[in-house]
Amino acid sequence: MSWTLRILYALLTLFIVMNVGLLLNGVTRKIYARVNRRVGIRFYQPYIDLVKNYSLTNLVTHGVMFYLGPIFRLTSGVGLILFIPLIYGSQGFSNFSFSGDAVLILYFLFFGTLGMALGSGESGQPHSAIGVARGLAQVTAAEIPLVLSFLSVFIQYQSLSITEIVGAQQSGILQWTFFTNPLAGVTALLAFLGSMMRSPFDVVLAPQEIPIGPPTEYHGAFLGVLQTNRAIFPVAKTILYVNLFFGGAASWPALIPKAFLLYMWSVVVGTVFPRYRVDQSIRWFLKVPLALGLLSIVCIHFC
Amino acid sequence: MRSNDDFLSKKIVPGVEGDEIEVDPIRDYYCDAVPQVSREYKRAYPSIIDRFKNWARSESIWILAYGSGCGAIEMRPLMTPKYDAYQYGIQWRPTPRQANLLMVSGYLSLKTLRIVIRAYEQMPSPKYVMGLGSCTINGGMYYDSYNTINRLDYYLPVDVYVAGCMPRPESLLDGLELLKKLIREGKGHGADIYAEKFEWYKANQKKILKSWNMPDYSW
User: Domain segments of chain A: what residues?
Assistant: First the structure.
């Protein structure tokens, strides 16, 4: 396959994922509102917000890192989606996945938060600094069970290639990693909640706590870039989970319901459970999910 | 209160490693460039892209959730199930950097006027101001108070007034609809008017705020 075609497919993937992400954001907020007995925003409101934010003036310059923060954040989402095979067996929608891509993807999962920490740290706003400190603490706590469950999967298949891992799960539902390695699957589902920026783990961005946390100083197009990433990143992450734990997808009709149901898992939990404080959420991640993650590695090694 | 010179003059601050850092508050903490009139404002007729942008701006109004007077309590019902304003594209943001609409909810004491001016200047343009209640129009029941301002539009460019003491949430929603209509028609140019008549607004502000201990323009 020629490089031009691959780049075109990559752009198409990005376009699809961004639109799906924006729509899901709108629908999710609608669901939250309906549960609260409100009418809620229009489901296409995220699009309007995005256009409006890009059409505002950029006021302040705080330095180079302030500019790079949102770009790093967007890079993590875009990088994640470009190195995940979207459709198993499709040459075009395998994008740039290669053997050993799982290591790169683990890096991309954390990269955005670090970039954001540097960027909002330079804004000089105390609320940003507090927000980022909370965010890093919480993401790190969620990352430990996440990486443990991923390691368990890598050990199980003796492979660091996501395409190979998907290929090994193709012979039936019972061959999905979630059923062959249930401990890792449950750990990963619990860790999944930690980085979806939804309740109960959304104290970092919650407007009611300290004014909005890390992006306090970000406005206009900077905020637009962050919003774009907020659409892309959760969908990319969901597709990664579908690939690793739920048998991947050989076609679009298989991918869409799987990814949608997995995405809704975080929405349902977010609608039902109230918000944790940062210390509570760190304790929560370091109890049951951490124990399950360690157990899954022990099991996969000795059983 | 410290004087202006004291607050904004250069000073030596001890660093972490025992070294000394010179801080120039005007340049290090604030941006002192005066606001400029936008290109959109100078155009005789709005282009198609301007119209599209104006439509997006009108359908996505983010309010700075900052209550200066008793009218702030009339804003809260707009977030609740009864008058859910989110369905009209109106949302609340906790920081002036991300807000488009400054809702001045009722009387402004001199102390809050100072904060309101700074918050307004930190918002990215195009930005809008809405005055709630008769206090912002002519002082209302505080017309002869020694400590509150009477007319808001001497100090900030107001787009829409909502009359009443206090206006009900319904009239607030009506005011927001009017603001949306003005923005769609390309009349939401408060920030440009502020830039155009900057000296007049600053003179008014300094006349009433006797101890002016901030830079002239603080983004």
Answer: 3-302
ipTM over 0.90 threshold: no
Q: How far is A239 from chain B (nearest CA, A)?
A: 30
B97–A218 CB contact, under 8 Å: yes
The number of CA neighbours under 13 Å toward the Cβ of A86 is 23
A/B interface, count of CB pairs below 8 Å: 82
Q: Which residue of B has its CA nearest to A127?
A: B95
**Could you give all domains of chain B from N- to C-terminal order, each with its CATH number?**
47-208 (3.40.50.12280)
Among the residues of A158-219, which ranges form H helices? 162-168, 177-180, 182-194
Report how far residue A274's alpha carbon sits from residue A249's, in angstroms, rounded to the nearest whole number. Answer: 33
Q: Sign of torsion, CA B167 B169 B172 B178?
A: negative
CB A134 within 8 A of CB A204: yes
**Cβ–Cβ below 8 Å for A220 and B86:** no
Output the pTM of the full model: 0.90
Q: What is the pLDDT of residue A28?
A: 93
Q: Contacts of residue A45 in chain B, CB cutoff 8 Å?
A: 60, 89
How far from chain centre, in Å, is Cα B84? 24
What are the chain B neighbours of A41 within 8 Å (beta carbons)?
A: 86-87, 89, 91
pLDDT (tens digit, 9 = 90+) per residue, A46-103? Answer: 999 999 999 998 877 777 888 899 999 999 999 999 999 889 888 888 888 877 788 8
SS3 A157: helix
